[in-house]
Amino acid sequence: MMNKNKIIYPGTFDPITYGHSNIISRAANLFDEVVVAVAESSKKQPFFSLEQRINLAQEVTKNIPQVSVIKFDCMLVDLAHQLNAKIILRGLRAVSDFEYEVQLSGMNHQIAPDIETIFISASQEHAFVSSSLVREMASIGGDVSQFIDPKVQIALKQELLKKKC
Ligand code: ADP
């Protein structure tokens, strides 16, 4: 049986930002179960390991009981079928996200017409936040405390130090 109250929020989360957690908490107001699905994304060569990205996402969402965090390395629609979920959630920031997101959801819908993608637009204060810019700023010593959780900040600092050595 498909579960209409379950939504999957997929992404690389490299690392999870306040932009992501804003989308997650808003989805948790609407759905009984929000599954944050962390993509292995090996092609993107993520900065953080899959394990770190999962741990940080768990840490940041631990106070929201509806949220669980899992990893995946298969087709998104296959994951949705495996989890008996009907809905995929993506966040939209700017027009620049739009083209890619519409393409992705269109292809997914063609492959699996029983799965729908829905979008939540970024809140104004988080509309400019991206994981890649946060990493870039932090790497040159910028203050990223407005954009990521303190625990993510610590992990980012540690990882940057490790990679410098
Ligand atoms: P991906 O590599 O799949 O794009 P990301 O981790 O970058 O994964 O993003 C996951 C989802 O969250 C995407 O739909 C992305 O558009 C959205 N997102 C990223 N940053 C924000 C933000 N600041 N506000 C709202 N949505 C965001």
Question: What is the radius of gyration?
Answer: 16 Å
Mean pLDDT: 95
- Small molecules bound: adenosine-5'-diphosphate
Q: Name the strands of the widest sheet in spatial order.
A: 3-2-1-4-5
**Strands, total number:** 5
The poorly predicted ranges are: none
Compute the separation of the termini in Å.
51 Å
List strands and helices in order, with pairings:
Blueprint: E1 3-11, H1 18-28, E2 33-39, H2 50-61, E3 67-72, H3 76-82, E4 85-92, H4 95-111, E5 116-121, H5 131-139, H6 150-164
Parallel strand pairs: 1-2, 1-4, 2-3, 4-5
Bound molecules: adenosine-5'-diphosphate.
Adenosine-5'-diphosphate binds at residues 11-13, 17, 19-20, 23, 90-91, 93, 97, 122, 126, 129-131.
Structural write-up:
- It is built from 6 helices and 5 strands; from the N terminus they run E-H-E-H-E-H-E-H-E-H-H.
- With 165 residues, it is an alpha/beta fold.
- Strands 3-2-1-4-5 form a 5-stranded parallel beta sheet, sandwiched between helices.
- Helix 1 links the parallel strand 1 (3-11) and strand 2.
- Bound molecules: adenosine-5'-diphosphate.
Quick rundown:
The protein is α/β, with parallel strands linked by helices. The protein has six helices and five strands.
Characteristics:
alpha/beta; binds adenosine-5'-diphosphate
